[in-house]
Amino acid sequence: MAEFSDKVYEYLKTVPAGKVVTYGMIAFAIGHPRASRQVGNALHRNPAPIVVPCHRVVNRMGRLAPEFAFGGSEVQASLLRSEGVEVVDGSVDLNEYLWRE
User: Fold this and answer.
1) Catalytic residues
2) What does pTM read for this prediction?
């Protein structure tokens, strides 16, 4: 499992500030397209929350994590806003902020 988590963390480090990705996008990018829940589990155990910017991960509808592991959805929203991402009613507009490599 450590190898899977390490791949999640390394991928997430490439996501630029001001952009978001989904759990499924990460799973697909690291070669495990059906493992979005496992991505969430890895992020919940993130050993370096600022270095590995897990706050940039939203669900496929653009919703923030209801129980963001490092302080709740308001902390996630605040971190995203500090990077210029507009968060409205707990959601991000994926048409505007989704990172496309």
Assistant:
1) 54
2) 0.94
